[in-house]
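During the reporting period, our protein records have gained a structure token line. One record among many is quoted in full directly below:
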Amino acid sequence: MFQRLAWVELSSPEQSRLVAVRDAFGRVMGGVAVRIDKSRVLSGYRYMRVTRLGEGLPPESWEPIVAALAKLGREEAKVLRLSVRVFSREHGAEIGALLERYGFHPEPHPTAYRNTLSIDLRPEPEMILAGLNKSARKNLRDADKSPLCVRVITDSKYVERLNALELMAIRRTQGTCGTQDWPSVMQLTREHPGLSRIVGLFLSEDELEPEAMVGFAWGCMNGVSGEYRAGGTAHVPNLKVSMSHRLVRDLILWSKREGAQWFDMGGVTVGEPVTHPLHGVSVFKRHFTHHLEDVGEEWSMEPHPARAKFVRWIGSYVRRSTDAMQRVRNGWH
């Protein structure tokens, strides 16, 4: 989804652009969306990021796209860093070799997930559900017996509630990432229901107002895969059934209907201790499947290394100064 024009059109030219390549006959071979973020340290400078490169694009488009990205990074004024997140189950090494050839370097501390859990969507829907882990099947049976109901969300009146539920999830997992641009995601869901789907969970069919929504999940279509992109739930005392299993099931079956061959559970921890903030989320995802995939890498280039190094130094200095001032203020109290 993140290499489609529909996604880029929802952002201003200052926030993103589409890099597309054409063959000798002028036909579009493929493209990627490039997100643009302003530097908070050096006014006028910016960072660029490709959210996903690989799956959903024809192999013959990979090198032209990488070449175009390298050219963009070097020729665009005041770019401090251009990052590319590679996502591919089978061709990550090939795409990585292309990026290295054009001057990109692997990121030692990537911000995107490397491992995910997958569900094969090629069988018939009833076989897909029958193939889920035993715990998922039990939780779904229990949830189906409850008054809980799932509804597709397309009305902008739910945006504020989506923000609140996502923030609850981020705080529970001690996350630091920002929330989604829900107004744009909602618009995308209305205009392109085959690319984006938001489903909300309500305690009953009689109460469907925003404040009555106790959970949600957002799914995306990325070519041959559907993806569990984001979700969140509220704490509901005395609720004895799972709140999220029916939401994920809805996205799995939607992905199947839209032609996806497999479902991406959206990243999972591997080898981290049980104290890791995302351990609980990973345990939940493993209720559905144990099929682990190595899918992600992150590469970057700094067209002007000295300038980028200076900005990192300034940013580090500002953070140290802020921390020191905070400690002083805490000491006064």
Notes: The chain is about 35% helix and 25% strand. The longest strand covers residues 28-38. The longest helix spans residues 305-332.
